[in-house]
Each structure stands twice: as C-alpha cells, then as structure tokens.
Amino acid sequence: MRKKLLLGNWKMNKTPSEAKEFALGSKEMVDYAIAHGIDVGVAPTFLSLDVVKANADPRLIVSAQNVNEHDHGAYTGEISIPMLQAIGVSWVILGHSERREYNAETSAACNAKIKALLAANMVPVYCCGESLATFEEGNTKPFVEEQIRTGLASLTADEAKNIVIAYEPIWAIGTGKSATKEIAEDTIAYIRGILRDMFGDVAESMRILYGGSVKPNNIAEYMSMPDIDGALVGGASLALDSYKGLIEGLVK
C-alpha cells in the first residue's frame, strides 16, 4: 500500500520570519500526521529553506521549489544540488505549471534535473498538467503522456521508484475551480498506466499526487480514489490551521 503524502507548495509567499513561525507551530500537526501514517512537507522559498529545517520537527519534509542540474558555475540566480544538500534539503519540485509558463521550463529540462537529483539520492516531485483549452479539446491524456515520457525518459525502473508525480490541471490552480474526483482519478490512473508501460511493476509503488484548488473541505473526496496518493497544495498550505485541516481530510 502506498503511503499518503501531503506537500505544501508555498510558492513566493512567507518571509523567513513568517516561515519560522509556521515551523515552530507545526510539531503537533506533524505528530498527528505521522501517527496516522501520512508523510507531510512544505516547499518554502530558497530564503526560508534553512529556517524551516532548523525550526520544524525533523520529520517534516522540506522541499525546494526548483534546482539547477549543474553542481556549480556561471548560472546567475540559480541554486545547485550541493547547496541544498548542505542544509539538509533532499526534495525538489520540478516542472510546476507556473515555472513552465513563466520560466520556460520544459519537460526535457526537467529530465536533466531529475537525473541529477537521482544521482545525488534526492527526491524529485515532477509536475504535469494541461491547460483549460487542452482539457476542453479532450487532449488531456496525450498532452500529459508527452510530459511524463519526456520528463522521465531514459530512467531505469530502479531510479523511477524514487520519483513522486504530481498531476495538476492548470485550469484548477489558483482559480477556485477543481477537477472532480472522477476526472482526477481518470487522469492519474492513466498516468500510472504510462508509468507501468515505462517501468513495469515499479509503477504500483510510485506515489501520484493531485493538485489544483485542494482545500480542507474537498481533500477527502480526492483521497477516496484508488490511484490518488496525496496532494500538492498551494494556498491552503500557508496557514497552520488550514494545513491541519488538510491532514485531517487525509485521515478520513
């Protein structure tokens, strides 16, 4: 049975002092999640990674929101894998729709980063998802399939088992709209089928999250579906009370 995972993507929110306040107040919440067999984590900005690591329960996963595939060099504004390792960060979100749109991040670029992370024994959280136009045209599955096959190209099954996938329909991110649990399950089950074709039985152990306007009052619906293993959550992960509500929804 795959272990449930809740990961909060803070995006460009929280100053280091605000992140510290969250971290200090999160211990009881983490205790509750761990007691119910749920992995929980947050992805702060680069400035707050060390702050959260230093002040949160050590069982709270702390993820970066991006990384460069090179260890060092003339890459202004970038952060390397060794830099993250130096502060104990071993998870990284890649390919989020906002980075694809605003920073021209491609699936091929994500593939290079995923390979570098796996070589460093780190955990990539690889995002995929379609626009409203693609969804309305009925092209969700071929669009997402290309993202998965390109992003995970040339990996072995042994490498793939360490990757988390997050399906986030772009039309449901920050819009207040959300895919029905049936739509989310249909696409995520399709993704698992692609992973099965690429990596065999390892696909059954790979965690696939849903993201897109997930809130405390709807997360339990998604978690009732057999192929949805957790959630990648944006705004609802910023406040401790809301985050705790998300965990409670996972427990139901």
Percent of residues in helices comes to 40-55%
Strand content: 5-15%
The largest β sheet comes out as:
8 strands, parallel
Overall tally of domains: 1
CATH top level is Alpha Beta
Mean pLDDT: 96
Unreliable stretches (pLDDT < 50, length at least 5) are none
Identify the strand order in the major beta sheet. Answer: 7-6-5-4-3-2-1-8
Order of helices and strands: EHHEHEHEHHEHHHEHEHEH
CATH architectural arrangement? Alpha-Beta Barrel
CATH topology: TIM Barrel
Shape: globular
In CATH, what is the homologous superfamily? Aldolase class I
How is this structure best described in words?
- The structure is a single chain.
- The longest helix has 19 residues, at 181-199.
- This protein starts with a strand and ends with a helix.
- The chain is an alpha/beta fold and 252 residues long.
- The protein has a single domain, classed as Aldolase class I (TIM Barrel, Alpha-Beta Barrel).
- The radius of gyration is 17 Å and the shape is globular.
- Strands 7-6-5-4-3-2-1-8 form an 8-stranded parallel β-sheet.
- The chain contains 12 helices and 8 strands.
- Helix 4 (81-86) links the parallel strand 3 (61-64) and strand 4.
